[in-house]
Specification:
The protein has 438 residues and is mainly α. It has helices spanning 2-19, 24-38, 43-77, 80-92, 97-109, 114-132, 136-153, 158-166, 171-194, 221-244, 250-258, 261-277, 284-317, 320-329, 335-350, 353-370, 376-386, 396-405, 409-435. The chain crosses the membrane at residues 30-46, 58-76, 96-129, 136-154, 174-197, 218-242, 254-278, 298-316, 336-369, 376-393, 413-434.
């Protein structure tokens, strides 16, 4: 009954958005309430569950998206994005710019949460697309594939890091094996797959499109790169420090505080306000209007992502994720395949890769810890790969990609969803191969 209810809810969500043309945020609210009632949540608690999901999701992501949009808007309007695009194209050539962005996405994706990397790199993608009149999905999807792979496979991201602890795995070996899997997954699901997507029409959000600025009025290459990549530098440096210094000193606590993503984004916005705003002759009133417009442009994205959080909360509060897990545990499969399958089905049902990974780990941890034949490092990667499978309308990442790139539901499914699913299956095949070798 639980599986049928979840299936019905997902179909209802798809029909409301694609056929009835209901606003996605409203559709999420309707489906979340319906699912909650059908799954047995008491009438008086359904609304609280929805509100809890909305609040938790917005609390985790609103600062990142809003500050990231402000930085992105300023990077675009100041000419910094134009300068970065020119430097990249001069270094790699227009023919290989896609590979340059993939490399940038992989490096940046290692220390950054997916949503942070997304909102930071989208302006760079769009600046290249607008300036050189390239296909947005063809250029952008490979970079986002790199971000997604690092999110699902590699520590220090939340799910892989937590799985390493749960299974008593080795962080270094997991990272090494993850890097081995990441390379083919990114190449095949990124640049290779993107060749089939050149005909997808896309008119990306204009918030990151600025008028062409004369070369002599652009900020310097150093200022442009420094400002755009400052969040990455701050997070990488603080993470490196915290991983090498485990003391309880005041300095350690201060570095940990500075390394928190919202603080990093705030520091970066303050720095951008100076380097790309005040230093370029702009006043605070003008900069304030830029920031206001940036937040307006991403407001609906915030609501849609929050709506997906409400749906996830209803399914979690009803115990649907545990019901799914209990059903799957009765299957007699190779342990690594079972871990991948549990994570994949929870991901399809709930939308969140992190929740899928952590839930699957809780279900299968006893098996891993009591069976010495199971490689715990590979189980981390198997579950990580499964947690990326078939991202669709109940996943916030799906809506980030759709809304930023301004795509139809159909084109988002055939590009984003297929890319995520390819990464998932390539990861599973790689894990099974490694299991025969290590």
């Amino acid at each position: 009954m639980t599986l049928l209810t979840i299936f019905f809810s997902i179909i209802l969500l798809i029909l409301l958005v694609s056929w009835a043309k209901v606003n996605p945020f409203v559709a999420f609210l309707l489906v979340s309430i319906t699912a909650g009632l059908l799954l047995g949540i008491p009438l008086e608690k359904v609304t609280k569950s929805v509100q809890h999901g909305l609040g938790d999701t917005l609390g985790a992501i609103s600062i990142i998206i809003c500050l990231g949009a402000m930085i992105g808007k300023l990077v675009a309007t100041s000419g910094a994005a134009q300068k970065i695009a020119e430097v990249l194209v001069n270094a790699f050539g227009v023919k290989y710019i896609q590979w340059a962005l993939v490399l940038a996405g992989f490096i940046i994706g290692i220390p950054l949460f997916y949503e942070t990397g997304f909102v930071l790199m989208v302006p760079l993608i769009f600046s290249v697309v607008y300036k050189y009149k390239l296909h947005a999905v063809y250029i952008g999807l490979p970079m986002l594939a790199a971000l997604s792979v690092t999110h699902g496979f590699l520590p220090p991201h939340p799910s892989p890091s937590a799985l390493v602890l749960t299974f008593h795995a080795d962080m270094g070996k997991t990272l090494k094996y993850g890097l081995i899997l990441a390379i083919p997954a990114i190449i095949l699901a990124g640049p290779v797959f993107a060749r089939t997507l050149k005909n997808i029409p896309s008119n990306p959000l204009k918030t990151f499109m600025a008028d062409e600025i004369p070369a002599n009025q652009l900020p310097s290459a150093f200022t442009s790169f420094f400002t755009a990549l400052l969040p990455v530098v701050l997070i990488m440096s603080t993470t490196l420090y915290l991983n090498t210094d485990h003391s309880e000193t005041t300095l350690h606590k201060l570095i940990a505080f500075i390394g928190e993503t919202p603080i990093v984004m705030l520091i970066s916005l303050i720095m951008a306000t100076f380097t790309l705003g005040l230093k370029q002759g702009k006043d605070m009133k003008f900069l304030g209007s830029i920031y206001t417009h940036a937040v307006k442009d991403v407001s609906m994205i915030l609501l849609i992502v929050a709506g997906s959080g409400a749906f996830k909360a209803v399914l979690t509060d009803s115990g649907a994720n545990k019901d799914i897990a209990n059903i799957l545990q009765s299957f007699h499969l190779q342990p690594l395949v079972l871990g991948w399958l549990i994570a994949a089905i929870i991901r399809i049902s709930l939308g969140s890769a992190t929740v899928a990974g952590l839930t699957a780990a809780g279900i299968i941890s006893t098996l891993v810890l009591h069976d010495p034949t199971i490689n715990p490092n590979l189980m981390v990667l198997a579950i990580g790969a499964g947690s990326l499978a078939f991202s669709h309308l109940n996943d916030g990442g799906f809506w980030l990609f759709k809304e930023y790139f301004n795509l139809s539901i159909k084109d988002t499914l055939r590009s984003w969803t297929v890319m995520e699913t390819m990464v998932s299956f390539i990861g599973l095949v790689g894990v099974l191969i490694l299991n025969q070798v290590v």
